[in-house]
Amino acid sequence: MTTVDFNYSLSNMTKTLKPFAIKLTKDHDDANDLLQETLMKAYNNREKFAEGTNLKAWLYTIMKNTFITNYQRMVRRGTFIDTTDNLHFINSTSTQIENRAAGNFALRDINTSIEKLDDVYKIPFMMYFRGFKYHEIADRLEIPIGTVKNRIHIARKQLKEKLRTYRA
């Protein structure tokens, strides 16, 4: 395919590529940029296009891959586009340091509250917490399944009461 034929085919495809670009970007200006970038890549790599294959599919693939690459690049940078008149890229990551002290206090209080539970309630509750099913707990403790459910319910209720300071 000659360069002139290729350019003519590209110009005919812009009308079919534009809706796909809008679907990907959800914005007309970004869609125009994506379309332009796709056509530039296709033109610069025209020698890679095998004549007789589907040009439309080739262009759709270029557009999709360009969109994904641009999206991943933006996510990696951790930036967002400021839509004010000056259009600067602003770094959106904050320099906030978390020392997890509050989480450590809460975890210690939770563990203390669990330890203070009566063994009758604590054992089924911890077994359930570790992933045992109700019927497995009932079998191991040799008690009815209804009793297992009741004891876990009571344990939750007591823990909820003891840990009410952590309610949101």
From TrEMBL:
Gene3D superfamilies: 1.10.1740.10, Winged helix-like DNA-binding domain superfamily/Winged helix DNA-binding domain (1.10.10.10). It holds the Pfam family Sigma70_r2. SUPFAM superfamilies: Sigma2 domain of RNA polymerase sigma factors, Sigma3 and sigma4 domains of RNA polymerase sigma factors. GO terms for molecular function: DNA binding; sigma factor activity. It comes from the Bacteria. Residues 17-73 form the RNA polymerase sigma-70 region domain. Residues 109-159 form the RNA polymerase sigma factor 70 region 4 type domain. This is RNA polymerase subunit sigma. GO terms for biological process: DNA-templated transcription initiation. Belongs to the sigma-70 factor family. ECF subfamily. InterPro entries: RNA_pol_sigma-70-like, RNA_pol_sigma-70_dom, RNA_pol_sigma70_r2, RNA_pol_sigma70_r4_t2, RNA_pol_sigma_r2, RNA_pol_sigma_r3/r4-like, WH-like_DNA-bd_sf. Keywords: Sigma factor, Transcription, Transcription regulation.
